[in-house]
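=== RUN LOG ===
request id: a7f3
mode: sequence -> structure
chains: 1
length: 227
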Amino acid sequence: MTAANYDDFTVPEKILVAADQLEQQGNTPFTAEALIVAVWQKFPKTFGLKGFAELYPDSNKVLSSLMGEKGLARRGWLVKTGQKMYALTREGRRVIRRVTLQEGDEPEAPKLQRLSRDLERFVVGLLDSSAVQKFEENRKAELTFADACRFWGVTENMKGDQLDARIALVQEKLTELDRLFAETDADLSSGRVLTAGDVRVLTNIHRHMEDRFERHLNLLRSRAGKR
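=== RESULT ===
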């Protein structure tokens, strides 16, 4: 088999190679900082700080390739699993096999599934929410109860049983998504690939806000009960 020529790789592909190396070393998920160092050590000319390439990495070059509309997370090659924590997706591993000329080493990934219209509308609503946006931008400390309510589809006019039913429905749909993604990823109508890692992140955000805003939820329940 012909060896891959790393000089021909794009910046995102080089970052994927370093991410794969980290995971092979047992670092999964891995931190953004670990990825910055790993990709710089492997490709110092590409990711070294201008004028000091052999001494320091250019962290901005790596971070800008992770986030944004054209970033590795948006492409579905990496998934953000926590604050500055990432993991390779199934699609990311497929890209690595292709660019490193290892297509025959593993069976082709299963065909992407399509979600029902209702389930896709639900998950897109969560992905586009202010809560997820703040989480992705490492602004978890700025999350408000209003963000949580928009994430859950909760209003302050809901009674206690309606409130609990709505939050339970979110958990139920997340559980359904988790079960669906046991075998393969999904292709959204927007072209985005949704992975099991994305669903885990949404579930983590849901649980984090349930714990963080427990007092607010109880206050809303008590107000609703007095009406």
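=== NOTES ===
Residues 62 and 180 are 32 Å apart (CA to CA).
The beta strands are 30-31, 48-49, 52-57, 78-82, 85-88, 186-187, 193-194.
=== END ===
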